[in-house]
Structure formats: C-alpha cells, structure tokens
Amino acid sequence: MNKPRLALLIGIISISIFPILVKLGYTSGLISAFYRMAIAFVVLLPAVFLFKKFKLPSGKFILLSALCGVLFGSDVAVWNTAIHESTATQASLLTNLSPIWVGIGAYLFYKDNPRINFWIGTLVAFIGMVVIVGIDFFIELKFDKGFLFGILSGVFYSAYLLTAKKVLAEVNVPTFMLINLFASSIFLAIVNALAGEAFYGFSDKAWLVLVIQAIVCQLLAWFMLSFAIQHMRATRVSLSLLSQAFLTGILAWLFINEEINVNMIMGGVVLLFGIAITFIPKPLLPGFKK
Question: How much helix, strand and coil, in percent to the nearest 5, is found in the chain?
C-alpha cells in the first residue's frame, strides 16, 4: 500500500469514532465543534514552530486556508446539530452525499471530469448505504431541520475538500492545518457566543471526550486525510470517506452496544466494493478513456 492510501485508511479509522463521541452527549454539538478545533490548534501551534514546519504562504493561499477553516467548522457544527436534531444514521447518510457534490464541483470549477469508474463506484457505494440503513429508513425519512442540516453539512464538506485540494497543491500540510484550525476556532467561537453556549462547567468525562476529539478525530485524522488529498483525486478521497459510516457502525457495536445486523454487514461489503471500483486503473465500460 502506498503512502497516500495508507494515510487515507488511517484518517478514515481515526474520524470514524467521532459520531460515537458526539452521541455520548456530554456537550452540545456546537461547543463540541469549537473545542475540537481550538484544542487541536493549541496542541499543533508549538509543534509546528518547534520543528520549523511553518512556511508562510502568499496572501491568496492564507485566505483560502482560512476559508477552509470556516467551511470545515461550518460542516462540523451543522453535522453535530443534525445528529442531535435527527439520528446519527440520517445525519451520516445525508452528509455522505458529499461525493456527488465533489464530483460536480470538480467538473464545474476545476474542469476535472471524474473518471467513469468514480460514478460507477459512487452508485454501487450508495446502494451499499441503502442496504445498511434499510428501506424502512427511507419510508420514515423526515424532511425537517435535521434533514436540512444533514444536506448542508455535505455541501460544506464538499466545498472544503475541493478548496483544500487547491490549497494543498501550494501549501504544506502543517501550515495549512495551522491556519485552517485558527480560522475555524475563531469562527466557531463567534458562532457559539451568538448562540449563547457555555464555554466551561463541563464534567471531567466531557473534557476527556473533547480532548480525544481534538487529538484523534481532528489532528491525526486530518493530517492523514490532508496528505491523501494532496496526492490523490478529491473525488476518490470523498468517496472513500463513505466507509466511515460502516466503520462507525462496527465501533458502535463494539463499544456502546449498538445493534449490528445482516443488512449492515451486507451493505458494508457492497459499499467497500463500490469504493474499490474507483481504484481500478482501467475504465469498467468500453469506450471511455478516463
């Protein structure tokens, strides 16, 4: 396995525990999002300068890196809210529509027409997602605030991935992460202050969960994923992130006793097969050059 693919795998595993930590409910979704970014920034800041990894980019890329922070902060805040407003399943499914938005965005803004294997893999992966959640889920789907926030989360996520791809072509990962986290922390601090959220007074368990989110789900996960984005197609990375839902289900079964059933196992296999299709170098359909 080459380094970008290994980094992608580590990143996906690291981020898969995040919905479980959010569902513990020790803090609100908004304040959880703020501390995920702020603690990660405080930890990363001395390390970046100690190891001399900060390379000041041009003004354009400082602004784009900051924009990534706002987009990612918006995604996490909206997704956390969607989880609380509906269910983890609905929120995860809707935010994971992001490969579609990434594919469309790559074509419109970067003139990067995704390979036919991407669209085939996306279709197969979504069939897997449908099998995982079951047809009853779609029958009972509520088009409420939770639904809207889930969709919006996927849009923010896609915009982040596409913008990060552009920035990481010119800026190293530690510098990008530092600017990204700083902008995200400031943005989320303002959002929480306007929402009247309390910034302190949490239990010891709550603080432990917030630190784990920052170190594992943010720093480790997104260092790995940023490296993968830097060296791989954004469309391929976004589709690979769908496997997060399957891994989250397995981890929830192992650690918080959530039920796992045949649908989840079968759907997970189909989903992973769909992702694998995008890594096949030759087109699956004749007549396509990409």
Answer: 75, 0, 25
CA distance linking residue 145 with residue 133, whole number of Å: 20
Closest by CA to 157, choosing from 87, 86, 105, is: 105
pTM for the full predicted model: 0.78
Identity of the amino acid at 233: R
Residue 4 CA to residue 279 CA, distance in Å, equals 13
Residue 108 corresponds to which amino acid? L
Coil, helix or strand at residue 171: coil
Q: Where are the domains of the chain?
A: 3-277
More confident residue, 208 or 284: 208
Q: How many Cβ atoms sit within 10 Å of the Cβ of residue 145?
A: 12
pLDDT band, residue 290 (cuts 50/70/90): very low
Residue with more model confidence, 74 or 267: 74
Q: Are 243 and 12 in contact (CB under 8 A)?
A: yes
